[in-house]
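User: Structure tokens for both sequences below?

Assistant:
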Amino acid sequence: MVQGTTSDAGKSLLVAGLCRCFHNLGIAVAPFKPQNMALNSAVTASGGEIGRAQALQAKAARLVPHVDMNPVLLKPHSDTGAQVIIHGKAITDMEAAAYHDYKTTAMTAVLASHQRLQQQYELIVVEGAGSPAEINLRDRDIANMGFAEAVDCPVIIIADIDRGGVFAQLVGTLELLSETEQQRVVGFVINRFRGDIGLLQPGLDWLQQRTGKPVLGVLPYLMNLGAAAEDAIDTEQQLDHTDIRLRVRVPVLSRISNHTDFDMLRQHPQVDFAYVGPGQPLTGADLIILPGSKNVRAELDLLRKGRWAGDIARHLRYGGKVMGICAGYQLLGEAIHDPEGVEGPEGSATGLGYLPIATRLFPDKSLTNDHGQLLLYDDHHQIVAPPMRVPVTGYQIHVGQSHYLEPSTARPFAQLDSGKNQLDGCYSADDQVAGTYLHGVFDTPSALQFILAWAGASTDRIDDYQQQQEQALDRIAAACAEHLDIPALLAFSSASRPQVPTQENSQENSHHPLSGSNP
């Protein structure tokens, strides 16, 4: 199990790197995170919802993502409340105090998933959450040492030296653990180091002498990695300042979700991309994109009480383009109705009014992986014949259903192959505004190029998202193989032979490569 001294210490990517590294060694390995709190999620093949980091880790292990890899997912909708997702399905919303009491029940789901994975794989690499030294969260813990103690799992602790104070992080974390938990820690990993390793060696020697725990490796800072971040917004950008074709701005909504939608834009060398924080102006853009969110009506209040609603109106008056994804699409419509109080108090709200749709929120969530075509229109607003359409892939995670106010004149954004050729999203009559429910819409190269052209930019440097993620995982695995004591890590583990998948998981597990030839 990989635990960290802080959030964003590098747990997710270390687990991904180890999964790819162990897979390359011929070991049947799977990732696992007992409890994840994140608004970045992914859809499994069977329509379950898990943390996006676990989907990336599954890719690292050459596996199809499965709900057992993240049995408990919490999606915050306020400072004190969150949607609780168990085995891929949303069961209820809970306030923090109520969830604290519920954790005993949640642990049952965690242990059931872990047991099923144990029956199928030789090795499980587990990711903790936050820090194990959060004293107020230790009671009934299911995310860190509470889980490790329950399944008798060895733990390594990772710390980010780039933040500073790495020795204090590691020693302090260890000191705050109980005696049995300290014994469970088998070593440390230091992450994001840059410089002369010789200058760090005296500190490593002191750390081992002070704690009695070995430093199992020092991982280098990997520049321009491009791997999908779990929850923290990544602002690093690869920009060619000599050839900027488009300026894109994304407002950071209060409950922004699935910000990995924008990774391909953020990393595009011809796109000047920036997130805009609360209170900052939405200016200097060719294209403004409203992202997904966990609480759409609260975001409407944020847009109107701040300056962003006015900035968007001004941007459109001067001929700019605006796009909305998922909740952003709903925000751009005429109305949002929540008669059952799915995302807060019952009621309705007037949308920004730029797209001819109305949305109603329902308790049941749409969870699909989709592919289809972006729809092209001629000068008479008629759909162009199929050979001219642009392929697109993506996924949907939303509780709202939107309908066209004038179906006969609607201009849908895409036609999806699933759901009897269902139509998705739409354009405004003046072609300045577009919206879609598809997360990941920029990940298909042809779709990215088409949308950038719609926004006014002719681009010729397009990367493939899936290929980019594979390259990032290979870089992380290579760093792990070179800089970590892999034999020691394997010696600490209790790898066992895989068994036949259980009957209840046969649908998704049929994709898992349970090879009997692994050494």
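Moving on to the next sequence.
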Amino acid sequence: MLVTALLTAMVAVSGCQDGDANSKDPADEDAAGSSCSQVLSAQAKAAMLRLADVPASAKADYVGDPRRTADQLAAQYLTGRADETGLSFCGAYAGSSGPASVEVQFSLSRALPRKRAAAADFKEYRMGKAALVGAKTAFLYFDCSSSKFDGTTQLIRGEVRTTYEDTEPPAVAREDHLRVLHDSSRVLSGLLGCGQGSGITGAFTMPPAV
């Protein structure tokens, strides 16, 4: 009887271990699915690499956790500690170059930039609430109405910044800046559960200049 009981227990334990080895924790899958290299489109990632001046033949690495960024923005609002310091969303660099050569950040913003201040250094486009593209950086502002903001509408600012001067033709670089911002903002909007009307939920098309 004792031997039979022991054998039965060993089989049960072995079965549980096999099952654990073959099963995946949904939380682990969610964590893996939240890396920026997985959530951004192939076109947006290619644009990031062009902005970072990473050759197509080089190995590219990505850093960032979009889901964590969304959670941090919601926490900033709920705790009343929101500021305009950018939270890292995604970065890319060549495998041998170290820190990200191009990075996307998001923050909660109090207001749109003043027209006069933006006009000198940036070209403005009709995307979201406002889109501004400069030589090494670009900004996209959009509204987000979400239960994570207690149902209020918050103004979110996205920023993409490059370490090096753009080597692309100016028109191509501006489109790449906007594509990266649009795709990143679309992902963030989904993670926050933003309602319709932000102007960044559809597929990217190059917007007209203001």
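User: Anything stand out in the second?

Assistant: Residues 1-33 have pLDDT under 50 and may be disordered.
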